[in-house]
Amino acid sequence: MKRLRWVSSVLSILPTVVTVLAVSAQAHAQSALPRHTPYPGGVAVVKIGEADAPSSEVMFDGKRVLTLHQSGGWFALVGLALDTQPGKKILNIKTGESPPKPAYDTAFDVKPKAYPVQHLKISSRFMQPTADDLKRIEREQMVIDRAKKHWSDEAPSNLVLDLPAHGRLSARFGLRRVLNGEERSPHAGLDVAVGTGTPLRAAARGRVINTADYFYSGKTVFVDHGQGFITLYIHMSRIDVTEGDSVERGAVLGLSGATGRVTGPHLHWAVLLNGAYVDPELFLK
Prior knowledge:
Blueprint: H1 2-31, E1 43-49, E2 56-60, E3 63-64, E4 66-70, E5 73-79, E6 87-95, E7 104-110, E8 117-120, H2 131-148, E9 168-171, E10 176-179, E11 182-183, E12 190-193, E13 199-201, E14 206-214, E15 218-224, E16 230-239, E17 246-247, E18 252-256, E19 267-273, E20 276-278
Parallel strand pairs: 8-10
Antiparallel strand pairs: 1-5, 2-3, 2-6, 4-5, 6-7, 9-12, 10-11, 12-19, 13-18, 14-15, 14-17, 15-16, 16-18, 16-19, 19-20
């Protein structure tokens, strides 16, 4: 009889235990750091303070850097552009202590990484733009550069991202691109092979900071997730959001397509950290 009462008691608390574990796992996923990948196109995860230290303002190459508080301390997540040269790099740190203390530097090392080469054939118009095209490209590049530098003080709700569409990963980040026999800028995103009209969903909660139809990237959406952590959705056939919209994880931003410089319909998905394109796969589950 006592054994039956004990079993009944255990069973009665199981739902609570499962709930607590699920909440704990969710909180861990939200705060999980990406892997420390200190190479061009990767993310350097640098500890900048203990857990009980105040928050700090961190700069790298003249740009603000995302900082995150974990149980083990404060960490800076530094996006490393594909053209970053290997060697010692410096972070400048200004602490939030009161009274304020002088800023100081901390160093980390960037390692080399070689990426494969991809050869593609595309329309000659995108290789030899007309004079009007060049004027358009120049205007658009100014807008794109502003969006890439966007900063909001609110920390990201989640550093673990969802793939915006289900499909084969047809071109991975960092590929050295040879277009019509000419070497061009490397592939700064992740391509997902989906047909035109596939819904594209926000990789995490955020705010739309730019939508436009650009010469090279076609119909594009920028979503800010906080502190320079930004995702881009490129070559869309239709955009269903406008600048300033708040979007939840999984919200439909529009439909996939083949606008801009493409060889066929697909999603080109990109991730920015402190203005640098980094490998989106570092943030997937």
